[in-house]
Amino acid sequence: MKGIDLVVIGAGLYVCGKGTSDYGTILPAIFEWKRYDKNIGDVHCVSTSVESAQELCKKASDLINKTGVNVKVKSYPQSGSRDHLAYRKVLNNVKKPACAIIAVPDHLHYQVAKDCLEAGLHTLLVKPLTPTTAEGRDLVNLAEDCNLYGAVEFHKRWDR
Q: Which of 20, 21, 44, 138 is deepest in the core (most CB within 10 A)?
């Protein structure tokens, strides 16, 4: 039985430790989820550049070697120049994932989350929900109207 697919939009420090020797938080969490629940299928990770996508794949490969957990990570874009809308191509062209995890700059939260909800995906945003209350209310209403689960991940709440 094939597991559920998910899409991760963003490939920066928090997702995979971009630009550091670390692995971020989201990619390692997905690996741990897979370790204990084999019901994960493909993980579609979307960035804005081929270079970021390649760095994410390298980090995923390193995590497979370090953990012994095999997660099938596909990265986008796979070719071409910088593409700030690569995530839309993934939403429209891959088998519908079960959910989206969004870790992009705050000012992009509203549009990316709106696109994911309109594509029928349960959506998790790394804090904050949106920069404005009006945008946040709009996303809450959209999730309710579409009967989708939407949540905000609040990391750092236990930091000193």
A: 44
d(CA 151, CA 6) in angstroms, rounded, equals: 15
Beta bridge partners of 125: 102, 152
Evaluate whether 92 touches 116 at the Cβ level (below 8 Å): no
Residue 2 CA from chain centroid, whole number: 20
Sheet containing 99-102: give its strands across: 72-76, 40-46, 4-9, 99-102, 122-126, 150-153
HSE of 29, CA atoms in CB hemisphere, 13 A: 11
pLDDT in tens, 106-140: 999 999 999 999 999 999 999 989 999 999 999 99
pLDDT (tens digit, 9 = 90+) per residue, 33-49?
A: 999 888 888 999 999 99
Which residues neighbour 159 within 8 Å (Cβ) at sequence distance 6 or greater? none
Which residues sit opposite 9 in a β-bridge?
46, 102
The CA distances from residue 49 to 59, 87, 129, in Å, are 16, 11, 24
pTM of the model: 0.92
Token code pair at residue 53: 């996508």
Query: 């949540």: which residue's tokens?
Result: 151
